[in-house]
């Protein structure tokens, strides 16, 4: 429909709209603007203006900005009009006028006679009883006056049972308090989502708060380690099954409370789908649902997913937050002090009281100024009296713990000591916490690793399997409760079941007398089947005999017949090398169709009791029972929020071992490259910022983003000791070398690092770790003892990678004079001088499978390579010179040691872009109009601190933009509808993508972004329009360029002006300076598009006006234009017009713009502070009104790498 439909509707309203309170309906000065006069007896007339936010999308995807230009309007009226604006989404002209008239009448007359204008029900309805009073959000609140109640709001504080809870939750004011607190959370910058669901649904009281991850300032390494993207949202789900308690009631809740339930996770959208929210709160978590996999018709972007640390954060919020809050409020504790006090009480220190703990929260580190950089994480939501906003407190506390999760134990939640900060959270030094984490799975989420890092999980299990297969397992996972079957001897067997087995059909048949015993078996259980020999008199233990026995898994339990799968078969003692299968016939290799009598032994003995040989054998069998990673991943992906403990495909021992294998690895390993495929062309991942250049395509690349924290700390300390002869830090503090080792050693290496405690290949050049300068040398040392094992291939049977060898690229301290040897190999006897950085593995995966586990998109902002020591360059596969990405070394460490942080030149990339498409407008709206209507007012006399809508100053016709003015634009730019591409040499040269974004300011998304839906909608619309224009227009003719793929902050843009006519003095200056574009920065405040953006030049520097320069660029780099002030700006102006205005100013010849080359200033960037000062001076001198957003945009926080 668009603007044409708007004009038709406005014309109809002008001639026929009938309302006693509305007169003089007319068209405004701007397209999509309504103006009318509101009249109420006893009140002066009020001129109302309503400006469409997107007239081209009217009415379906358009809303209205509502304000007044009447001087006698009060602040309350301005607040009301802003509230009304939030309800105009999708409404036509008549509906907007009617909405404003009805609501203003109700406000000014203090009456709510018309039920259709009721926003929030009053306290009276709740106090008077009735079923409707039981709901925090009455269905009448959004019924819009009709009787159709098919859909109702999904918040109902009271379940049909538990009358005591109903009375507590239904106390007067609880519903209004809930709505007010949600409004407060929204004003603090959080997105609120309350799903509307069919009222027949039993799950009620679920809603969410979310905030974009880019606002949290999380470093790139942490984003990668925690599987987060800056474009995603951290989401806290809240469920109130028994109503919204008061602060007094909440802090008294027990640790097993279910009154207020929280779930922390992430979502690509600020509004998770109801179905994924609901699933997170499903109560029956004790048995696996064998129904069809979870199906959700919602968009994948709406799926709520747990975080890496959700298994630790959820218990913290649900079980400990009430008591921690009680200690904070009663004793003025900080969060850390309250946690420590509670921990001491739980350990039996009942004599420790609040008086013995420090009282001043500022004394605690979690309140220090640099602890949290952003204001919304520093605010005090706790000390507010009885009107405590539980949602804000919980969200802030959860975000604080998320951002600093590596500083806290994942089990006991206590603050951990130590200066070195890991990128992945772990547990403290308490042995109980370590046991609970590794053995019981407290605080960890193996499911998260399987879903997000399947190739790494496959790698870890494969290394463990090789280690135990060759008896090279240094650390045995004790205390896991792993079970094995102890059959005893044939003469005196242990407790067992006598059964019959058909090996052909893989069926076990139980006699009816043993019904009670065999019903204890369930799917996933491991059993040992022993074939009964003729001679049952031997006293030799069965495991040390030649009796045929099979380790099996129960697959499908039945009544009297169970199906099974054979995992391993043995016909010799565990410690004896068997013959090959073709020389030993067994029931597994030659199954018969008949029934065979066997003894069935359950696995119920602890593996910890076994000798090393028997222990390793059982661990091998147990590892072979771990299902393929892709099979586990498929199960979890089809059932979001589910746990492997509910899956019948794994028993407790298998899951416990898998947990230990993954969780005990403290190194953070990342899959950088795809699974190699010989059928694909080489270099398929060469464009990734994390790929090592110079390696052959048949090696799969993994990166140690961080080794074990202890090893990293020791290595960092050694690097800081290195100095040049003049005492300055060494230019190349480290160098790189290769280390090859058999597969059975890598399980230990990735956990504890390289050492030389054992000798495998001799020590001809001294004691120490041997490292090669060429890849081929180290590759020769990868063969070990597991190849040709009596268990067959060394690869884990269920592995999809089928790893056959591995070589590591190591970073070593660059001090060859102190090495044991440097020729022909580096030999280093100081293990703290060595740190693995990359792992290259030879895999034998099928080409079809390679597409299932692609590497993640890199989060790093710089694509470049480390400058290696020229005397020790690394040689890779096929004698190629190796180029090592910057991502090999953490940014923070490079900065501390003075190493390169970014590189110049084209190809720099900022990941996690804002992807704009037709659906983005809905995603960026933090609340829908039903929720806005629901939360607009609750009838209480509260002082709602909403931002006042600024009155309209001037229209677009006053700005002068539409008036023709002399310019030196290229021919093509003067009429884009008749584009003629400029001839080569007539304009300055420009190549898109050549700008070094890493050298420009990078700002965190402002805290108020989510609370500015009007600005978000306007900016989103501008991005879509500008993308269409740029993609369909020749760049040289267009004259401006935005790299939308690298735009990750909607309130901060970088724009390049280019292709200037070579007849301009400015173009000549740019050519001499080697400058291809004028780099502009645009910053948007929360009032955009009511207020203009702040526009300034970053580089190059211009000759000041006082020295003869022109172009309307101030001495500080700000643009001197009335258009960019309140005096000349109109909300109807597009950003393309802003670009053209700035460009025309630069092309103005009276006087011409010139670049500044005096005192080398031409090579320096303008900074934001001098630009703000210069803008204020220029606006004051011309008498232009300075926008209120100028101060706001100048304080936007920088995002540190």
TrEMBL record:
Pfam families (UniProt xref): PARP (PF00644), UQ_con (PF00179)
Keyword Cell inner membrane appears in the UniProt entry: no
Entry keyword Transferase: yes
GO molecular function, one term: nucleotidyltransferase activity
SMART domains found in the cross-reference section: UBCc
Acidic residues: bias regions: 123-151, 933-943
Region Disordered, residue ranges: 115-179, 933-992
Compositionally biased region (Low complexity): 166-175
Residue ranges, compositional bias (Polar residues): 968-990
Keywords associated with the record: Glycosyltransferase, NAD, Nucleotidyltransferase, Transferase
The UBC core domain, residue ranges: 1017-1185
Organism of this sequence: Fusarium kuroshium
Name of protein: UBC core domain-containing protein
Domain of life: Eukaryota
